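Suppose a colleague, Dr. K., hands you the sequence of a protein chain of 502 amino acids and asks what its three-dimensional shape might be. Before reaching for any lab equipment, you can write down a predicted structure in token form. Begin with the sequence itself:
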Amino acid sequence: MKRLGNLSLAPLTLAALLLAAAVPAGCQPSGTVEASRPIDFQKIIASAKQKVYPCLVFVKPIRETFEGGERQRIEVFGSGVIISPDGYVVSNNHVCEKAVEVNCVLGDRVQVPATVIGLDPETDLALLKLHLPPGSEPLPVAQFADSDKVEAGQFVMALGSPFGFTRSISLGIISNTRRYIGFTTQYRYNLWLQTDAAINPGNSGGPLVDTEGKVVGVNTLGLGMADGIGFAIPSNVVSDVMGRLRAASAGASKEQWPVKVHRAYTGLQIQALNDFKSNTFTDANRGVLIQSVDQGSPAEAAGARDGDILLAVGAKEVNGLYVEDLPALRVLLADLSPDTETTLLLARKGTGDANSAGNLKPPAPSLAGKLGGRKVLTASITPVTRGKFEGEDFDCRQWNMTVKEITKFSNPRLYFIQPTGGVFVQGVRGPGNAADAGLRPNDVVIKIDRWDIKTIQDVKQAYAALVGDTKRVDKKALVTIKRDGFLDFKPLNWERDYLQED
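The predicted structure, expressed as tokens, is then:
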């Protein structure tokens, strides 16, 4: 990720722009009337900075990482902003995930430990709690603006700790207020604020602030292949997710931290009716296209099909003409009550066995709008509680590889190959025994010696039995894998101890 460009307008130009924005066209001075004095933009920046700087936190987690084929602990840097006087802090999930220890440096340069209370990888948000000394004064709290009122062209400042340097501020504008980047499995529940204020590594989790000193977003992403393109999570989304995490943590024990946002699962994968990225245009002007229906999901049981148009969920009509409409619809589906039946209104082409599939009912009354000759059907669906987004990791240290659980949300391609779930090779250390055996990242592990592998616990059991057997003469095992959908067999030999050779 490379540095994004700062706003390069001179202070005088900035002042002129602000003055023009502040004075209505019909009220411009003319004739002999003395011109209004330019707005002092430096004072505006200073005032906004003074309101937020005391709330800025330098976040220093020590994280466990498994990607390199072995478990390692590394210190990373990020930012955060205080959202409550008793020490709750918002940051990014990618800064705080898998943290085994977190320290935070406050505005007065005092370092205090913190605990990760909650994580939401799908919006990339994290909730921390500072462990303040007894008798500490209430902390300064950042004020949040209404991000729905943010406008393109509005001046903003990105605060944070880039590259581990404490306290930094960069200036820019809002380039877009409704940027959609949810084309992958992450970032699908909200739109983003796009800014050209510099967001570098370490800025993640810091506040994006308007000229009134209010937080309009949380800095999260900067594009390394582009100049002047960064993204922040809108403040209204941050407030909603933080409220959910705090509510979930209140009913959980410390052993259950970090808590996650609870979402319902239907198995409906939706696509905009007019999708310019895939060049797909549907002959309808209402509803949202059902791109696919997950196998074995509640939506499949309800009778929904690929290519149907979803018109309503319960009493709520839905419309997804463009990709910017999709996050709100995904939130609507995710907020359904698990194990509680609701109705879907679908539009489907043709007749055939339409009414015999799932629990579809006879056609509902026709609705206004273009549906491309489709018939309207009603289906009953019972959502279930969504499983965990990301699976557990395990370090097969003597074999010089790490493995990870397959989930349909974070590993959809592997889940397609192995729809029952399972375990895959996450990382292979080189040189090492797994590399010598020909194992590669993303190999799905089917069997290790005599143990069938269906869960991460199965791997742990097989590893403990094989490596921990001191009476075992040969240190060898046959590993059955699935690679690119085909079965393969790899002879794993750990007679050589690469760890001792390091």
